[in-house]
Amino acid sequence: MGFWDKLKKITGSVFGTAISEEDEAFFEDLEEMLIMADVGMTTATEAVERLRKVMVQEKISGQEPVKEALRSILAEMLTMEDQELHISTRPSVILVVGVNGVGKTTSIGKLAARLKGEGKRVLLCAGDTFRAAAADQLEIWANRCGCEIVRQHEGADPGAVLFDALQAAKARGVDVVICDTAGRLHNKSNLMAELHKLRKIIDRETPDADLETLLVLDATTGQNGLIQAKQFQETAGCTGIILTKLDGTAKGGIVIAIARELGVPVKFVGLGEGIRDMQPFDAREYVNAII
Length: 291
Description:
The chain is an alpha/beta fold. Helix content is 47%, strand content 13%. An eight-stranded mixed β-sheet has the order 3-2-4-1-5-6-7-8, sandwiched between helices.
């Protein structure tokens, strides 16, 4: 019997004071399913308890009505007021952070293309001076998007590159500076301290600029993504998340846990390798894919 077929076995007792063993088994299996989707223990428990109350209060039964109730609960958990990019000043700055291999540079290219398509003048800052050919990769994206780029030699001080980029942006009337950063493990204190330094340079050189700090997370990371998000939030003050590789996983539920525990909204999702394969996050659409 399929998981959702068990709903057919739930009796009317779920609407009364007594809950049958079959009813309890359904709720336990549902909680386990959400945990397996990386929603997280705390969030999964809360969602199931809320579903249980809604089913009783509204006398909901049957597969589709219960699924729809669960979708609404999860979407509400994910929906936050601040899911738009705040980049109204000239220049505005977007600092992109994350661990190695999550797709930061690719995400920057896609985001630059999106903003360029909206009529904004975009400048890319090659702040990842440690990874071999990182600046070359970013320059390829700059050329594809028709954006400007500021870069230096491999091994240069990332702060110096960012300083040059901000000065160039102010001189050229650039709308948005998007700064790449070296991939760093969230538990490496010296690398995380460098992010703090970059934030200080932005605050000093463009004190009135809108600043977005976007954390790039791999949707396949699982619960480690929550640990990463907590550390980057403490160090860099993340304002949003870009969730990558969502097309390659049946999970990705970790963003619900992050939204609930940290209050950091998902702003964009990556759905492929193409330049147009980044979309604004839609909580309802996302939940429909999980359930």
